[in-house]
Amino acid sequence: VLPADDGKHYVMVLGGLGYIGSHTTLELLKDGYNVVVVDDLSNCFEEVLNPIRILAEDYCREQGLIMPTLRFHKMDYRSEQMRQLFPRYAAARSCITGVIHFAAFKSVAESIERPLAYYQNNICGLVDLLVTLQENGIKNFVFSSSATVYGAKANEGKPLREDDLVHFDETYIDEMGQECLRINGSKGLTCPYGRSKYFAEAILADLAKADPSMRITALRYFNPVGCHPSGILREDPRQKPTNLFPVIASVMKGKKPQLEVFGSDWETRDGTAIRDFIHVMDLAQGHVAALAAAKANPSRDSFRAYNLGTGNGMTVAEVISSFEKASMQKVPAVLAPRRAGDVGACVAATQRAETELGWTTAKGVDECARDTWNALNMPEDCLA
Ligand code: NAD
Ligand code: WQD
């Protein structure tokens, strides 16, 4: 229940109990932000509030800080209830100073079977949300985008730069000092999920152009993996994940007999595909940095995209070795054909985020594997 004269400033986190949202909520609390989480629990469990609270309270106690306020509203971010939240907070003299939007559907395969459900949640929901934010004068908006927006550009084998995908035609000066035209648009997006992230960014860029007072940040995540080192806050979805780390985790738990390694004939150092695996704690801190940077730099473009990755590509075989090192066990694996729609390598250029957000990653793939393995060994009921 919101006190009648609450009078606090909050960051609102939509989808804040999901994998990345829960780790980000923790980092926001540690940084002193009061947080309002909205989640409909479609891909998470309410119990995740417990480890968030425990870890934030432990941190604040150790650091001699006052624990900020954490509020949770179980609701669809597209609902009328959600629209009513803003006047409710205003009536309590509270202020929502920024919104981080994680709430979306994210399965590539499911998006091909249910494109309209994906567009409804990831696009229609976003547009209506932006109208509500405008009505309530909220300017600072951080959006969960994805390296998937670069599409086939990843096949060119170079680290992906934010300028590889722009939303308006731009001129730029090339290495030879010549003026060139960069044409907006993305090529080789292979699924409705990926397209939903691309369309969402384009909509955000249009809004930012029409309303230059907006501060919209699109964070293009590479491959988020790992979990809090305590193991009590971790990836715990309702939907069965098909990504590499959770699949290895299922194999190590004996829930799946072996890992299928999709493709061993890529042009990489060991033939398996390369990805830029970013520890979710580093990623979470990237959101705190993005929120602060948007506030601190009023002359910034009203729409700005940043890659959140490490800049270091690791192969699937190297990930398996990291798990074997962490667990001192063999990961049963078989070579299988390439998975449809995959690219051989996808690695971030990290300079823009380093320079403009003052943020960089600290953890490598060994720590990602170690923390995932550690969480696997925590009792199932540790969240209760
Ligand atoms: P997640 O499914 O764990 O988290 C999303 C959360 O949003 C869930 O808790 C879900 O219950 C909630 N949600 C979904 N629709 C909702 C709605 N209509 N109303 C309220 N809550 C709703 O996913 P995640 O891995 O934490 O991803 C977060 C965001 O980052 C998503 O937008 C995703 O597309 C994007 N992203 C994820 C990855 C990845 O590999 N995990 C990579 C790039 C981008
Ligand atoms: C990584 C590598 C697989 C499973 C996906 C989405 C992307 C983004 C992040 C949201 C690939 C290989 C995997 C397995 C394997 N999500 N692999 N065996 O495909 O890079 O990105 O998640 O925005 O949009 O496409 O991640 O973890 O699925 O795969 O060999 O059982 O591991 O082929 O080379 P991906 P991933």
Automatic annotation (TrEMBL):
Residues 11-309 form the NAD-dependent epimerase/dehydratase domain. It comes from the Eukaryota. Coiled coil: none annotated. The lineage of its organism: Eukaryota, Fungi, Dikarya, Ascomycota, Pezizomycotina. GO terms for molecular function: UDP-glucose 4-epimerase activity. One of its GO terms (biological process) is monosaccharide metabolic process. This is NAD-dependent epimerase/dehydratase domain-containing protein. One of its GO terms (cellular component) is cytosol.
